Amino acid sequence: MDSKEPILLKSLGELKLAIVGTTANLTKDEQRVMKQEITIVLKKYPTDTIIISGGAKGVDTIALEIAKDIGFKTLEYKPEKEIWEFYKKRNLQIAKDCDELYCFSIGVKKIKCYHHNPPQKHEKTAGCWTLKKAKQMNKRCTLIILTITT
Q1: Position 12 confidence tier, pLDDT thresholds 50, 70, 90
Q2: Burial of 65 (0-12, 13-18, 19+ CB in 10 A)
Q3: Range of the domain at 55
Q4: What is the pLDDT of residue 26?
Q5: What is the distance between the alpha carbons of residues 70 and 60, in angstroms, rounded to a whole number?
Q6: Alpha-carbon distances, residue 50 vs 75, 76, 117 (angstroms)
Q7: Prediction pTM value
């Protein structure tokens, strides 16, 4: 499911929105645009929404910073160790706990994303792996690919 507007009614507790995505080294222009786009998404939601992040560099960190500045509650799921087994466990927890998920990526720099079928024309990110798992759990998911032209 793709989401354009937030789920405004949540019968049991607060809405949980996950924001995940690229950990690639972003240029200053990419960082600026990423911040703008994440801000646009967050401003669609009431501030009692809980923002979930994986705590990684890049999108996760940017999203948490903006969410806190706006006044959202946040949950940060960091892996116990920095190896795939623990990243996978963390990413599955994010997919399980969220009601909606946004994944932000950038154009291909090194590795084309293979978490989609067919592969997408954006940088590989574990955020897309998390998005794929959230979709399998029938969560509302949106992939946003930022392309910066100079």
Answers
A1: very low
A2: middle
A3: 16-146
A4: 81
A5: 16
A6: 7, 10, 30
A7: 0.83
